[in-house]
Design brief:
about 180 residues; elongated; mainly alpha
Length: about 180
């Protein structure tokens, strides 16, 4: 069912894959802000503060989160942290920006909430990327687009995967990096 490069027939698989990705994006965005802001106690998926601490320690030392994912989040956090620094949202007290931890935030609850939304958005993007990688692997194994779309849909629409995609747990990023390898 794969189309040849010179075929005049439109490819149906990319259209259905795009529709599946749009559906998954809509489903992931529905619960993206669940549990936020957390002003009383950290949520179980709170990766923002440990990532800020890793930035402060130049990613050296023990952490329970994978370094590659923390580097990915640091890159995603950079524009927001730069904006906080430029607008006075960080109280550096003479420290370098890289030395300031979560205690330097003027509005810790609001800033950590925004950082968690950024981290959750990264997970959503990795969820979508993971579904594309599963589709490509299934298409290579099956040799056809139809079964590959079915596998990608079953995988991507899994309720457990959707839950982990909307949080900042590292399950989806780890699956993404494993599939990308």
């Amino acid at each position: 069912m794969t189309d040849e490069p010179g075929s005049s027939r439109p490819q149906a698989a990319p259209r259905f894959l795009r529709a599946l990705l749009a559906l998954l994006l809509a489903l992931d965005l529905v619960g993206l802000g669940w549990g936020l802001p957390h002003t009383l106690a950290p949520q179980p998926d709170d990766i923002a503060k440990p990532t800020l601490d890793s930035i402060r320690h130049h990613f050296v030392g023990p952490t329970k989160y994978p370094k590659v994912h923390q580097l990915t989040l640091a890159a995603a956090y950079a524009p927001y942290l730069g904006w906080l620094w430029a607008t006075g949202g960080l109280e550096l007290g003479g420290q370098a920006v890289s030395e300031a931890g979560a205690s330097a935030l003027k509005d810790p609850a609001g800033s950590i909430t925004t950082l968690l939304m950024i981290a959750r958005s990264v997970n959503v993007l990795m969820h979508l990327g993971l579904v594309v990688l599963v589709f490509l692997a299934a298409r290579r194994l099956a040799g056809a687009d139809g079964p590959a779309l079915g596998v990608a849909a079953l995988f991507g629409l899994s309720p457990v995967l959707g839950l982990f995609a909307r949080g900042t747990w590292v399950d989806v990023p780890m699956l993404f990096w494993l599939a990308a390898a």
